[in-house]
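Ticket 4471: requesting a sanity check on a complex prediction with zinc ion. Repro inputs:
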Amino acid sequence: MNNSIEIPLDLPDVQVLAVDKTAKGDWLIRIESTLEGTTCRQCGCQVSQFHGFDQALRLRHLPLFEVPVFVELRPKRYRCEFCKNQPTTTQKLSWHENRSPNTKPYERWLLRMLINSTVTDVAKKLAVRDGVVMGVLNRWLAKAVNWDRFEQLAVLCVDEIALKRGHRDYVVLVTTPRSGGVEVLAVLADRQKQTVADFFASIPSRLKSTVQRVCSDMYKGFVGAAKAQLPAAKIVIDRFHVAKAYRDGADTVRKQEVKRLKGALSKAAYAEIKGAMWPFRKSPKHLKASERALLARLFIHSPKLKQAYVLREELTQIFEQAYTKSGAKCAIRAWCKRVRKSEIAAFDAFLGTVETWLDEITNYFLERLNSGFVEGFNNRVKVLKRRCYGIFDIDQIFQRLTLDTQGFQLFGSD
Ligand SMILES: [Zn+2]
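Returned C-alpha cells:
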C-alpha cells in the first residue's frame, strides 16, 4: 500500500541531494545551489570562477506534519579574477539572510506566530530558545519608523504607558491612525518635554507641515512640545482622557459615601446597598432593573452621591452632543457653575483642569463627526498599551507593536 506523498521543497535555485532523518527524528534535507557565480564582495563584478564549497550550513525550515525540518547546504565560493588579491566571495541565496540560523520562509512564519503573542510563548511552541525568536524579530523589524512610507500624517497621538502596574517610569507611545487601524511612530524613553520635542523635531519637514492635530492627554510636557515643534497643529485633548478625570471625581465621592454609610447604617441596611461600584460606574441606559433599584436605595441614603452621579452623566451628555466648539465651551462652563454650587469637593481638581485646558478640550468638538472612528482608534491604542507590560526595552516595544499592527500585511503568507 502506498501511504506517502511527494511535495516540492519550494525554495528557489536549489536541488535536493538527499532526505534523511536525524537521530532526534527531525527531517534533514541536503540541498545544493543550482545558481552559477556571484558578485565579488570587493569590486561588485559578476564572477564565475568556482573556488570550492564552504562549511555546511544547517538551517531551520518550515516543519512538515509538525516534524522539525532542517535544510543543509554547503554554500559555493567564487574567486574574483578582476581584483588584484583575487578575493573569494560566498554565494548568497534569496531565501536566506546572512548569519541567520533559519530560512526566510521559516522566519516569516515565526513572525506570524508572534503577532499578538509573546516571545516566550512562541519560543515554547516552536521549541526554540527565546534568543532565536528575538533574533528573527531583530532581523525583520526596524527599531524606528521609516518615514518614506508616509505621504502625510494629519493626526498624531501621544500617550504615556506605565510598563508595570504602579510603576513610576513612563514611556511615551506616539501613534497615528491609518487605514482603519493604527500605526506606531515611536516609543520614547520618557515623558520629558524635551524628549517629545526632539521626536517631533525629527519628523521630516515635508511631513511636519501635514500634521493638523495632535491628540494628547492633559500633560503640559506633551502639549508644550507640540506647540513648539508643530505650531500649525491643533492640540486636541481626547474626551477619553477628560472623562477619566471627571469620572475619577465621581468615584471618589462614591468611596467616601460608602465608607461613611458603612459606619452610619445598621448591618442590614448597609447590606441593601452593597455592590454599588459597578452599577454606579454605568450610565443609566446600561443599568439592569436590579442595578437601578440598588442605586435608588443608595441615593436615598446619600443625596450627595446622587448629585455626583447626575453631574457626571450631564457632562458625558455634553460630549455626546453635536455642539460647535463655542457651544461646547458654554455648556461646559455652565456645568462647572453647577458643580461649584453643589458643594461636592471631589470635582475641584477637575474644575482646575477645565480652566487650564478648555480650549484644547473643546477642540474635540471640531472633529465631532469622527467620534466613531476616534473611539475605535482609542481602543486599538489601549490594546497596544496593554501589550507593553513587562517589556522594558523601548526598541523591542516598537518592534513588537509594529508587528502587532502590521504583521499580517508585512509577513502574510500570500
Ligand atoms: Zn572583485
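Notes from triage: The longest strand covers residues 154-162. Leaving this open until the requester confirms.
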